[in-house]
Amino acid sequence: MARTPAPTALWPAPHASGAVDATVHVPGSKSVTNRALVLAALASEPGWLRRPLRSRDTLLMADALRAMGIEIEEGVGPDGTGEAWRVLPAGLRGPATVDVGNAGTVMRFLPPVATLADGPVHFDGDPRSHERPLHGVIDALRALGARIDDDGRGALPLTVHGVGALDGGPVEVDASSSSQFVSALLLSGPRFNQGVEVRHTGSTLPSLPHIQMTVDMLRAVGAQVDTPESGGEPGVWRVTPGALLGRDLTVEPDLSNAQPFLAAALVTGGRVVVPDWPARTTQPGDRLREIFTEMGGSCRLTDYGLEFTGSGAVHGIDVDLGDVGELTPGIAAVAALADSPSTLRGVAHLRLHETDRLAALTKEINELGGDVTETADGLHIRPRPLHGGVFHTYEDHRMATAGAVIGLAVEGVRIENVATTAKTLPDFPDLWTAMLGAA
Ligand SMILES: O=C(O)C1=C[C@@H](OP(=O)(O)O)[C@@H](O)[C@H](O)C1
Ligand SMILES: C=C(OP(=O)(O)O)C(=O)O
């Protein structure tokens, strides 16, 4: 098995000698796994999580919940098939210390959980976690009755002084910098004394499908949630207080992590099959069926999974990615290899993701000879012949996979710190070379 390179190493991105033709089993969704862990921890009975994603972000979530007293057993499922984690909820404990790494889901979803602990819970993480916005969660929890010590910047590090319960009730949040503020408050909402009513006050709200994912998963464990889609007021979500059920949940493949593999089919004019692609899902990656079709491919969704085929041509696209921002790096990579320019819109908030993704994509593609400019809310990408060079990744898993896509078509691309893909897809280098080996 290929060894994952050390963080500082340069990984020679494999160049595709022909059209790829492969079946790629994509590991479970980060967003589903981390929501499922939180909901199982807050439930009133044990639950199972099958095919969970085992990656840096999800192991940080599991360890954080363990630090607060939840038992999570990693093993195989009750019928002996595949990996499954058993979550045994318990009274939430403090004092505890949580390392959030650079996981948005951990830094946003867990402070509300910590208000239910019976003592202080200290949160800290990677240097970048100190820069990512958290003010929406901090201010809302304070308004709902929590005591939180921070350094006044509305960011990590901070301590939530849990007292075993939170009043809850109505609260206003400007979630224009991250949908995760809304998801965070909703996920713990059933355990607040009065539930929670979240009213978004900002002018834009990114990543709506991820909020819908939160709502669907809450309902699946028995919570009552009123939403704008279910006839409620626009921009308002209401969760009724109540006990949550322990469930047996199978995690869908991570469709955003399927992106580089589908992109490989697109840029090489090949074919990639992703088994177990869900027929219905709230994952933003499902939009790739439409976006990559517009960019030149075609797809067929069957009971087995998704078959995606490239035509040999790659077209530019003008698209608003506000709902599906995490797809931007991979789309930008394909756009840099297209036969016409692209405009990616609606993603100003990506400047506050794992890195400033708009600046990073612009710089790295341009250093390979590209012509990318930043706009107020996205990127203009004018394809140019690219050449090899080092593609820096800024500890951003999606920068690394974007660079790998470019490397398929451009000889001599070397990816700095490909190991950063461990945030959500630790097997990436092996899956990538296996896909090419099958060509
Ligand atoms: O709730 C989630 O699981 C996520 C929501 C989105 O965050 P933002 O709304 O901050 O973009 C997305 O980009 C992130 O990768 C995962
Ligand atoms: C933005 C992302 O992650 P996070 O959950 O850390 O916000 C991402 O995975 O693209």
Automatic annotation (TrEMBL):
Descriptive protein name: 3-phosphoshikimate 1-carboxyvinyltransferase
Assembly: Monomer.
Reaction equations catalysed: 3-phosphoshikimate + phosphoenolpyruvate = 5-O-(1-carboxyvinyl)-3-phosphoshikimate + phosphate
GO molecular function, one term: 3-phosphoshikimate 1-carboxyvinyltransferase activity
Pathway of action: Metabolic intermediate biosynthesis; chorismate biosynthesis; chorismate from D-erythrose 4-phosphate and phosphoenolpyruvate: step 6/7
Keywords from the named record: Amino-acid biosynthesis, Aromatic amino acid biosynthesis, Cytoplasm, Transferase
Span of the signal peptide: none
Amino-acid biosynthesis as UniProt keyword: yes
SUPFAM superfamilies in the cross-refs: EPT/RTPC-like
Residue numbers annotated as active site: 326
Family assignment from sequence similarity: Belongs to the EPSP synthase family.
Keyword GTP-binding attached: no
Chain positions recorded as phosphoenolpyruvate binding sites: 30, 104, 132, 180, 357, 398, 423
